[in-house]
Design goal:
It is a single chain. By secondary structure, the protein is α+β, with helices and mostly antiparallel strands. It has 11 helices and 9 strands. Strand 6 and strand 7 form a beta hairpin. The mean pLDDT is 91. It binds 3,4-dihydroxyphenylalanine (DAH).
C-alpha cells in the first residue's frame, strides 16, 4: 500500500511542476485529488481492509492527500507571484538598461595618472582662478614680457599685474604653489582645467585640460626627464614608441624641450596622423629654470629638476583617433557611446 502511495505521489508531483496556468492547475487537482482520482480510490478502499491494517493505511493515504494539497497551494502561489497587481507578467524580460560610461577625457586622465603614479608622482590640484603672480611672475614671466603672448589670457581685471586675478592659462602655476609649500624631493602631477582666450576650432578650445608634471631633487638630470617621458609614451601608446626631444622655449625651463613620439598610426613611416613626418608632438618640457627655483625659495645650487605639461584632449585625440577637439564637449551621445 505505502509503495503504491509513494508512486502516486511522485507521479503527481512531477506533473504539478509542469502546470503553468490556472486551467492546468485545476485539471491536475481533478486528476490527483478529485473524486475519481487514484488517491481517493485508495481512501475509499480502506474500509475493506482487515481492521488491523486500516489505521496505518488510513494515516498514509491522508498524509499523501495533505501533502498533495500543500504542493498544489504552494505551486498556485508561485504562479500568481509572477503577476503583479496590474496583471502584468513580471517574469517577462525587461528592456535593456543603457549603462553609463566614463567620458573619454576622464578615462584618459585616469590612465595618465595610473601610468605616472608608480614612478612616484602624486596628483595635486590648484585653483582655476589664479593670481597673475603664480600664472606668470613666479614662472619667470614678468609683466610686459613678450612670452606672455604665448598664452591668450582671460583677465578678471583690467590690468595685467602681479596682484591681478585671471583664469589660469596652464597648470604650471601649481608648480610654484607646491614648491612654496614643501621642501624637496617633489614629485607631483597636476591634472586640471585651463582657459585661453582662443578662437575655437577643430584643434583649439577655450577651456581644456592639462596635466603638469614636476620632479625636484638634488640629482635630477635631463636623462631622468627622457626616461620618464619614454616610459610614459610607451605605456600610453605601445611599447614600440620612440621618444625624441627637440629644443624649444618656455620661460620657466632651461633648457626647454618639445617631446615627440614616433607616430603610433604608421610606426614612423609617415601618414596623415603625423602629417607625413613620422613624429607627433605630445608635450612641452624642460629643466626647471633656476630663477623659478629661487622664486620659491629653493637653492638652485642644490636642487634642480624637470617639468612637463601636456594637453589631455590632445592625448585623447591621438589615442582614440578623434579629429575635432570640440567633440569632447558637445555631449553628443553618439560620440560618447563609442568609448567603453
Ligand atoms: N605650461 C606650458 C603650456 O601650457 C606647457 C609646459 C611646457 C609645461 C614646459 C611645463 C614645461 O611644465 O616644463 O604651454
Amino acid at each position: 500500500m505505502q509503495e503504491r502511495i509513494d508512486e502516486l505521489l511522485a507521479a503527481a508531483r512531477a506533473e504539478l511542476s509542469q502546470a503553468g496556468s490556472d486551467a492546468a492547475l485545476e485539471a491536475w487537482r481533478v486528476a490527483h485529488l478529485g473524486r475519481r482520482s487514484a488517491l481517493t480510490g485508495i481512501l475509499r478502499s480502506i474500509r475493506d481492509l482487515p481492521p488491523d491494517e486500516r489505521r496505518a493505511a488510513g494515516q498514509a493515504a491522508n498524509a499523501a492527500r495533505q501533502s498533495l494539497e500543500e504542493a498544489l497551494a504552494a505551486h498556485r502561489d508561485s504562479l500568481s507571484r509572477r503577476e503583479d497587481e496590474s496583471g502584468a507578467d513580471v517574469t517577462m524580460p525587461g528592456y535593456p538598461v543603457r549603462l553609463g560610461r566614463l567620458h573619454p577625457l576622464t578615462r584618459t586622465l585616469r590612465e595618465i595618472r595610473a601610468v605616472l603614479a608608480p614612478l612616484g608622482f602624486r596628483a595635486v590640484s590648484g585653483p582655476e582662478v589664479e593670481w597673475d603672480r603664480y600664472n606668470f611672475e613666479l614662472l619667470n614671466i614678468p609683466a610686459d614680457h613678450p612670452a606672455r603672448d604665448m598664452w591668450d589670457t582671460f583677465h578678471l581685471q583690467q590690468q595685467a599685474r602681479p596682484g591681478d586675478l585671471l583664469l589660469r592659462t596652464h597648470t604650471s602655476p601649481v608648480q610654484a604653489r607646491v614648491m612654496e609649500q614643501v621642501r624637496p624631493p617633489v614629485r607631483v602631477i597636476v591634472p586640471g582645467k585651463v582657459y585661453r582666450y582662443e578662437n575655437r576650432d577643430a584643434s583649439h578650445e577655450s577651456e581644456f585640460m592639462q596635466v603638469e608634471g614636476l620632479a625636484i631633487d638634488e640629482h635630477i638630470t635631463m636623462a631622468d626627464l627622457r626616461g620618464t617621458l619614454t616610459h610614459f609614451v610607451r605605456a600610453m601608446f605601445g611599447p614600440d614608441r620612440e621618444l625624441r626631444i627637440r629644443a624649444s622655449y618656455f620661460p620657466f625651463t632651461e633648457p626647454s624641450a618639445e617631446a615627440e613620439m614616433s607616430c603610433h598610426a604608421c610606426d614612423g613611416g609617415g601618414c596623415s596622423v603625423c602629417g607625413g613626418s613620422g613624429w607627433i608632438e605630445i608635450l612641452g618640457a624642460g629643466m626647471v629654470h633656476p630663477t623659478v627655483l629661487a622664486n620659491v625659495g629653493y637653492d638652485p645650487e642644490v636642487y634642480q629638476g624637470f617639468a612637463f605639461g601636456m594637453g589631455v584632449e590632445r592625448i585623447a585625440m591621438l589615442k582614440y583617433g578623434v579629429t575635432d577637439i570640440r567633440s569632447f564637449y558637445r555631449n553628443d551621445l553618439r560620440f560618447l557611446r563609442q568609448f567603453h
